[in-house]
Amino acid sequence: MLTGTVADVVVRLPKTLPLTTTVAEARAELADEHMHMLLLTAGGFLMGTLVRSDLAQVDNDADLALVYSSLSGRTVPPSVNAEVMRRVLVASGDRRRAVVDREGRLLGLLCLKRRLSGFCSDRDVAARARRVAPASFSA
Questions:
Q1: What is the structure's pLDDT at 134?
Q2: What residue ranges do the domains of the chain occupy?
Q3: Contact between residue 17 and residue 27 where contact means Cβ atoms under 8 Å apart
Q4: Which of 21, 27, 114, 127 could bridge 17 with an S-S bond, Cβ 3.0-4.6 Å?
Q5: For residue 138, what pLDDT is reported?
C-alpha cells in the first residue's frame, strides 16, 4: 500500500511536445511501447493529452494533433492520495495521468508501473533512457 500523495510519486520532468505537433509526429512518438500518453504544452501549461486511440480514426497525418487531444479524465491534482490513484488507474485499465495544478500548469506525469504495484520515478525514467540510448563513438 502506497503512502503520500500524487505529488510525492510524480515523474517531474516528463517529455512534452509543442502545440505544433502533427498527427504523424504524435504517431511516431506513440510507436514506442513505453509511451502511453503524450503531453501537449505551451508555456508550462497542459493544453492536451493524446493516447493511441485518439488517433485511430484520423486520416490526415498533417493535422495538428492538438485537435484530437483531450484533458477530460486524464488529469489529477497533486493532492490526491497515491494509493487511491493507483487503485483508480488499475480499475480503469489506464497507466498514466497528467498532474496539474488548479491553473492547469503541468507538474508532472503519474506513471503506473507495468506490475501495477507502484509508480515510476524520475530515477526509473532516467535509467530506462540510459539503457535505450544509442551508443556514442569517439573519433
A1: 59
A2: 6-132
A3: no
A4: 21
A5: 46
**Residue found by looking up cell 497528467 in the block:** 98
CATH of region 6-132, choose from 3.40.50.300, 3.10.580.10, 3.40.50.150, 3.40.50.2000: 3.10.580.10
Can you read off the three cell numbers belonging to residue 99?
498532474
Cα(17)–Cα(29) distance, rounded to whole angstroms? 10
Question: pLDDT tens digits for 82-133?
Answer: 999 999 999 999 999 999 999 999 999 999 999 999 999 888 777 777 776 6
Q: Where are any strands of DSSP class E within the chain?
A: 17-18, 38-42, 45-50, 75-76, 96-100, 106-111
What is the distance between the alpha carbons of residues 123 and 131, in angstroms, rounded to a whole number?
12
Q: Look over the chain and give the mean of its residue pLDDT values, rounded to a whole number.
A: 92
Q: 20-38 in b/e burial notation, b at 16+ Cβ within 10 A?
A: ebebebbbeebeeeebebb
Q: What is the DSSP letter of 133?
A: S
Closest CA relative to residue 73, chosen from 58, 51, 57, 55:
51
| One-letter identity of residue 35 | M
Residue 28 CA, chain-centre distance (Å), reads 15
